[in-house]
Amino acid sequence: MASESNSRARSQIEALLSLISSSTQAAMSEYEKTGHGIPSPNSSESHPLDDEVGALALKTAIRTLEGACERLCTTLAQPMHTLINRAMPYEAPCLKFVVEEGIADILETTAPNGAKGMHVDDIVTKMKNKADPEKIGQVMLLLSTRGCFQEVSKDVYANNRISLPLLLSSPISSTISLYSGEILQGVAMLPEALVHPEYASSRKVNKSSFSYLIRNEMENASYFDWIQSNPHAGKRFQRAMVGFSRTVGSPDAVVQVYPWEQLLSPASGKNFLEFCDVGSGPGVVSLALSKSYPNKFKIILQDLPQPLEHTKTLWLAEHPGADVRFVPINFLKESPISGQDVYFLSYIILDWPDSDAIIILKNVAKAMKSSSRLILHEYILQHAYHDQGSIGSSELAPEPLLPNYGCVRPVNCNVIMLALYNSCIRTSEDFIALGRKSGLELVKLWPLSETCLIEFRLAS
Questions:
Q1: Could you confirm whether domain 91-166 is CATH 3.30.1510.10?
Q2: What residues does the O-methyltransferase C-terminal domain cover (predicted)?
């Protein structure tokens, strides 16, 4: 029996090694196709694929590679080793610090005489705030060990390919600041909020663990209330959403995967599409569509007045000739502009508990005509247990990977939604149920590797 068990375990390890090898080869091939070769982690320049938000083949290979490496380490490491690693996510506050102090920018622009890297003593002299060089060195050593910077020599640090998105000119820096700032603080309150008599069983958006965090500052307030009362945080949130979309490959992936050409073909009788982006935020997917199909999209961006002002600024800079209107809306209280060909909601439903999500979807359904399409752009939750059958958004991962590939971003996002909004990432079955309660029926799911497009029409 022991021999049989050992043989089965060895077989699983060999299968993981095979997946690591094949996915590594696939990723290297994608890099080499660009003509720029395979990147080095300590390169001082970005690789073209680093900014290619629609690199679906690369993302698919990395999903398998990450899942297989994680599964292998978890299998062979001692349990206490794995648990201690899980309990020490200390890179996050260190990343928040280096972003807010602009350390990547300091390293990029002020290294003396073109030298490779700066000593922590010199870094501190360029910082906005006074700091102890030894303490900064401790922060930088952790981040360099985790690959986020390069330690060139003792206490001398340089940017590398991984740290370049931390430059303040990149919207990714705002995403990192958001995740490692108030979001992390809200998640840190979960142990208290999950057992507090007033918060534990509530699914109201103003009774989340973030609401618990700010209860003395703003009583009975939601994260949305807090954002609206903090203009700096609100502006950063909008910019962070641009960075988030780039991270998961959203804009180009939506352009590439959904068959927009069919909607615009001569057989459709449409010369252009009326496209309403509801809760648009910066409207990055609408922006990508407008650029990819010139004069083929008449776009309406609808959001609350404050974020809509940030959106106007972005579009004026990025695409001044776009056919776009900016129309304020509170989608919990009113319907979007009626009669559009496509209604698009990107990462909206995940922010709201079921009762509010149904209100939003019903309000959209009221505005739809019989030929309208509603497209939700969301994560689809996949569980980690086997024998699930069809899960809708994509095939199950090959064994011995976990069925959800062990991909941590969606399940991390699931906890973030709980902490910020008392909401969750939903399964495909959950979306079908929400649609039925809102007068909608599912047409098709369009997988985008990490995320998914969920297409609805009015129920017949």
A1: no
A2: 270-387
